Amino acid sequence: MYKCCIFDLDGTLVNSIKAISYTTNLTLKKYGLGSIDEDQYKIFVGDGYKKLVERALIYCGDKTLIHYEDALVTYMEYFKVHYMYEVKAYDGIKDMLHYLKKNNIKIAVLSNKPHERTIDNVRGIFGIEYFDKIYGEKDDVKRKPDPEGAIITAKELGILTEHCLYIGDTDTDMKTGIGAGMDTIGVTWGFRNREELESYNPKYVIDNPNEIIDIINDHRSKIDNSICI
């Protein structure tokens, strides 16, 4: 029976692409580079801000990453100010979270966004009542797609990994959940398409947050029926 849902943040719970693109384009502007459109950023995101800045610089012509170290500092300075810029929960997310909480499903966030900004984003959009654990990128935990963060999160919640769903919108998330031994859900409303998600063979690919509720209920029914038999 599924007892826990671990969610990616950007592109899964919240649409933050405007904040990401705005902050990164401000960073590029400092060096006379950019700007880059939002659709391109949907490809760049998923592996943490350091990789995002690297990809953006190379895309704009800084092939040898002359500005890289300074750009990381600049990005973080801008992001502290603009991390909530037009960030919104996707339709149906809050209702889905409310259902999970009401039905005693543990709920966590595991993001490659810097840890403090992850907490700020989650609390700024959802408040404090839903999530049992919130983790962003931290120096002492390997960044996704390494499954370490997902495994640690499950352990801290007292849930076996086989009783967890991992939910995300990118190849990074598919690798993370599968690597952690969790049934993994790819969501199509985020930053990548169905074809890319399916290529990594997650357990499920869904188009609407309500399908998470259906998956949990169907799984529970199958277990109950097997017990009865």
From TrEMBL:
One of its GO terms (biological process) is DNA repair. One of its GO terms (molecular function) is phosphoglycolate phosphatase activity. The keyword NAD does not apply. GO terms for cellular component: cytosol. Gene3D superfamilies: HAD superfamily/HAD-like, Putative phosphatase, domain 2. Coiled coil: none annotated. Its EC number is 3.1.3.18. Keywords: Hydrolase. The keyword Zinc-finger does not apply. This is Phosphoglycolate phosphatase. The gene is gph.
